[in-house]
Amino acid sequence: MAPIGHKFSVTYEIVTPESAEHGDTAEDGFIAENISLRDAIDEVGGVCDEHNGNCEWFTRYDYGTDYRTGARESRSLHVPDSVTNATRTRIGRLLGVRMSMR
Q1: What dihedral angle (degrees, nearest 10) is formed by the CA atoms of 95, 101, 90, 99?
Q2: CB atoms near residue 78 (< 10 Å)
């Protein structure tokens, strides 16, 4: 995987029915910064749903739902700039993201 020294980040977003009406999040921020890939995968909860076009981050949209309020949490694993494209693709496969050939 990524060579020793690469540090990953995990962010979260919480969307409520009210914030969704305004096209915004109710809350967002960092879960963890400067962590290992293994720890980042644990924080994002394993399998992700998709990536942005350049595999700069991978998102899991169904991390959690508060059924009382309708709030939904998503988490994203952010890949450091120093990671090669080939390794980004391997990380995506590890996370279960369907990778398209470029």
Answers
A1: 0
A2: 18
Strand order in the sheet with 8-15: 27-35, 8-15, 71-78, 57-66, 50-51
Angstrom distance (rounded) from CA 90 to CA 97: 10
CA distances from 87 to 21, 41, 54, 66 (A): 38, 15, 12, 35
The DSSP bridge partners found for residue 59 are: 50, 76
Handedness of CA 9, 94, 84, 38 (dihedral sign): positive
pLDDT tens readout for residues 50-98: 777 778 899 999 899 999 999 999 999 999 999 998 998 899 989 988 7
Q: Using only C-alpha atoms, what is the Rg of the chain?
A: 14
The answer to whether 48 touches 59, Cβ cutoff 8 Å, is yes
Phi, psi of 76 (to 5 degrees): -130, 135
